[in-house]
Structure formats: structure tokens, C-alpha cells
Amino acid sequence: MALKIRLARAGTKKRPFYHIVVADARSPRDGRFIEKLGTYNPLLNKDAENRVVLNTERAQHWLSVGAQATDRVERFLDAAGLLKREARNNPEKAVPGAKATERAEARAAAAAAAEEAKNAPAEAAEEASA
């Protein structure tokens, strides 16, 4: 059985609250779980001590048994010192899409044409005076 340490959503609409649980990977997000390890309240400030409450002993046990943590839970475990999470690097994320690139090129071409049109009458006036 593949085990996951993941978040199960609780709370009302627009007021999220999560339970950190160990569950079978095939069970639904808010469905059946094996054990509750803690809670996560994203509405609290990042420096609040009860934003993430985690039973580290049980989390260490489940990691030793082979449970895989999701990315968000990996962040919590890294902060608790139970797991080392490598920082992700996606240099392609900041590259604009095809449509945005086309719009930027069109804007640059229009700006160049406007600059050329602005300079053209000045050049014609210089030639006339010479």
C-alpha cells in the first residue's frame, strides 16, 4: 500500500484549514485516512507558532515506514528538521507565453515606427535649412 503524508482540507468556504494526515495514495483528498499527524492554518501569520502543529515523532515513524510526503508537507517537515527538501528551480516559469511575446514585439515595432515618424520631420527641416 502506497502511503502519503498529505493535507486534508477542512474549514468552511473561503476559510481553509487543513489536517496533516497519513493516507493511502488511492483514497480521496478529504476521505479516509490512517492517522492524523497535525494541523495547518494558512490564515495565520507565517510567524505564528500554531500555524503548523505537527507530531514530529509520528511523522518520523511514517517516513521510516516509507510514506511519501507531498510538496507542501515536505516544506513543513523540512522546517521541523525531519526531512531535507531541495529547492526547486524552474527557469522556464518566468518566460512569457507566445501571445505575450507577440504583443511585446508588436508594441516594440509600433514604438520604433512612432520614434521614426517623430524624427523624420526634424530631418526634413534640417535638409530644408541647409
Could you give the topology of this structure?
Blueprint: E1 3-12, E2 15-24, E3 35-40, E4 52-54, H1 56-65, E5 68-69, H2 71-80, H3 98-129
Parallel strand pairs: 1-5
Antiparallel strand pairs: 1-2, 2-3, 3-4
Structure description:
Belongs to the bacterial ribosomal protein bS16 family. One of its GO terms (cellular component) is cytoplasm. Keywords: Ribonucleoprotein, Ribosomal protein. The chain is α+β, with helices and mostly antiparallel strands and 130 residues long. The chain folds into two domains: 3-80, Ribosomal protein S16 (S16 Ribosomal Protein, Chain: A, 2-Layer Sandwich), CATH 3.30.1320; 93-129. Helix content is 40%, strand content 24%. It contains three helices and five strands. It has helices at 56-65, 71-80, 98-129; strands at residues 3-12, 15-24, 35-40, 52-54, 68-69. It has a five-stranded mixed β-sheet with strand order 4-3-2-1-5. A hairpin with a 2-residue loop joins strand 1 and strand 2 (15-24). The longest helix has 32 residues, at 98-129. The radius of gyration is 28 Å and the shape is rod-shaped. The protein starts with a strand and ends with a helix. The model has no long low-confidence stretch (mean pLDDT 89).
Question: Which structural traits does this protein have?
Answer:
alpha+beta; S16 Ribosomal Protein, Chain: A; 40% helix
Oligomer designation: single chain
Number-wise, the strands total 5
N- to C-terminal distance: 89 Å
Mean pLDDT figure = 89
How many helix segments?
3
Shape: rod-shaped
Sheet with the most strands?
5 strands, mixed
H/E series: EEEEHEHH
In CATH, the homologous superfamily of the largest domain goes by the name: Ribosomal protein S16
